[in-house]
Amino acid sequence: MGFARRELFYVGGACVIGATGLFYAIRWIRRVVKDLRNPFVPIGVVAELYIYPVKACRGRKVDMMECSELGGSNGEMNDHHFLIYNTSTNHDLEINRCPRLVIIDSDVRNGTLMLTTAEHTPIRVDLQKVIGQNKIVTVTMWDKLRQSGLDCGREVGFWLSNVLDADEPLGLLYYRDGFYTERWSQRGYRWFFGLAPVKDKIAFTAIAPYMAFASESVKDVNSHLDENHQVNSRNFRGNIVIDGCPPFDEDWWMELKIGDAEFECYQPCARCVAITVDPATGMRDEGNQPLRALRQYRLAPEGKLRNIYKQDPIFGVYMGLDRRGTIRVGDQVFARYKNKPL
Fold first, then answer.
1. What Pfam family is a match for this entry (predicted)?
2. Could you state, in order of their start, the residue ranges of all structural domains in the chain?
3. What is the 3-state secondary structure (H, E, C) of the chain?
4. Fewer beta carbons within 10 Å, N or C terminal of the chain?
5. CA-to-CA distance for 213 and 195, rounded, in angstroms?
6. Mind spelling out the 3-state secondary structure of 150-212?
7. Can you give the pLDDT at residue 325?
8. What is the mean pLDDT, run by run of 10 residues, along the chain of 342 residues?
9. What's the pLDDT at 197?
10. Neighbours of 92 (CB within 10 A)
């Protein structure tokens, strides 16, 4: 009996080792084939980097970004780690319903979140106090999926209601890893003949941990607008803006390599009325620009993608992280190109 058990143990161990070896062999072969078919080529340099500590609020322009699977960070600022919500309905607040969100600036230092606007007295939130109070709230977000976080207290809620001229009571939620979530960013399927899903954890971002586009794409949009409706990269709320490549080059990106970090580009970014909000004033464009212009020439191609995105035009690409690293403004950017766009 002892011999049989030992034999079973050895056979099981051999199977595990064999399966592990097969996994890494397949991974290596796929990498070699990809390098031959779609090699990395230089396409430009990083022009701008943004972190959005509070979902839907003003982005912080930074010179350096630490990239992890959850999103970008700089110092104590982490991308999309706070969310404003309606405390009556427990729904998150979005730019399309409350455009004034974009006038709220944020910073995190020494364990304290500070919210500011040009018109109001700043407010500070002690994050250790929030953690200690441990008031867990679950909110409903995009696609009716729910996610939990820590409520940051009544004082900041009153401040937000005042700043946003809100009729409903508001609160601020703080993301904590390990809390309940129904929200994941699924990039697709890989390994073992495409049966293993690749899923990224996300904080309070809508779709994916990262979004990027070419600066020439913004210039191309402006070429379709008159001088009274010009936009800039802040309208499109990306994390990484890249100089040196053609307009809408992002339609063709398969992967990006910047500094030590590597990203997989896996889904186009469909645009809504949020891009019509002036990032400086929080006012909507009366002519519905640049959304109206983009609908004239940037709708998804007819077929499956058009059925998904309908009249929402495409601008930018969502990305997940394949390899952690630090990226900086001025870093050279390398891309693998797909054989067809989008």
1. MOSC
2. 41-49+207-337, 73-174
3. CHHHHHHHHHHHHHHHHHHHHHHHHHHHHHHHHHHHHCCCEEEEEEEEEEECCECCCCCEEECEEEEECCEEEECCEECCCEEEEECCCCEECCCCCCHHHHHCEEEEECCEEEEECCCCCCEEEEHHHHHHHCCEEEEECHHHCEEEEEECCHHHHHHHHHHCCCCCCEEEEECCCCCCECCEEEEEEECCCCCEEEEEECCCCCCCCEEEEEHHHHHHHHCCCCHHHCCCHHHHCCCEEEECCCCCHHHHEEEEEECCEEEEEEEEEECCHHHHECCCCCCECCCCCCHHHHHHHCCCCCCHHHHHHCCCCEEEEEEEEEECEEEECCCEEEEEECCCCC
4. N
5. 30
6. EECCHHHHHHHHHHCCCCCCEEEEECCCCCCECCEEEEEEECCCCCEEEEEECCCCCCCCEEE
7. 99
8. 59 54 45 67 99 99 98 99 98 97 99 98 99 99 96 98 96 98 81 60 96 99 97 99 99 98 97 98 97 98 96 98 98 98 94
9. 63
10. 20
Length of the chain: 342
Q: 60, 74 in Cβ contact below 8 A? A: yes
So what's the pLDDT on residue 187? 84
Q: Which numeric CATH code is attached to 41-49+207-337?
A: 2.40.33.20
Contact 54, 83 (CB under 8 A): yes
Distance CA 171, CA 139 (A): 11
